[in-house]
Design a protein that fits this description.
It contains four helices and three strands; from the N terminus they run H-E-E-H-H-E-H. The protein is of the alpha+beta class. The protein has one domain. Helix 1 runs parallel beside helix 3. The longest helix has about 30 residues.
């Protein structure tokens, strides 16, 4: 199952890059295409910052954050793979890795991230597949830490007695 999740992470990363390429080839800067009226549009922007334009133009900051994130995620991922840890935890790490790499590739190649998903029903930053992977990955890690990790700690402590 872990191999399947790693393949899924690679597909998320590949899909992120392919969609960004398609967007840059088919939409002019700032151009929008309605996908679901009143809900979702594809709008091309080049984002040199983070959400709500925070840290705009601070590419060096994102390089540092990426290096730190990879230094934390990769050993955790290897350890989780070897120990056959919870699939929720493992999936969260894989998605965080895919999202981190997806946005890093953009910043390294172009100096900015291509964003495209615009929620039309709320004032929310335009985002991309890598951002979604990061968000879902963090949510899965929170679920694991808040609800599942305790169960595993209790089970392992009981078996050590």
């Amino acid at each position: 199952m872990q191999i399947f999740i790693m393949v899924l992470g690679a597909l998320v990363l590949g899909g992120d890059q392919l969609l960004k390429y398609w967007i840059t080839q088919n939409l002019a800067m700032g151009q929008a295409r309605t996908m679901l009226p009143g809900l979702l549009s594809l709008t091309r922007i080049n984002n040199s910052g983070a959400a709500w334009s925070s840290f705009e133009g601070q590419t060096w900051f994102f390089y540092i954050v990426t290096i730190v994130a990879l230094a934390v995620i990769l050993p955790l991922l290897v350890r989780a793979f070897r120990r056959h840890d919870s699939l929720v935890y493992f999936s969260g790490l894989v998605l965080i890795l895919a999202g981190t790499l997806g946005n890093f590739i953009d910043r390294a190649r172009q100096g900015f991230v291509v964003d495209m998903f615009q929620l039309d029903f709320i004032n929310f930053p335009i985002f991309n597949v890598a951002d979604m992977a990061l968000t879902v990955g963090v949510i899965l890690i929170f679920i694991y830490v808040l609800f599942l990790d305790r169960d595993e700690d209790t089970t392992s402590k009981g078996s050590q007695r």
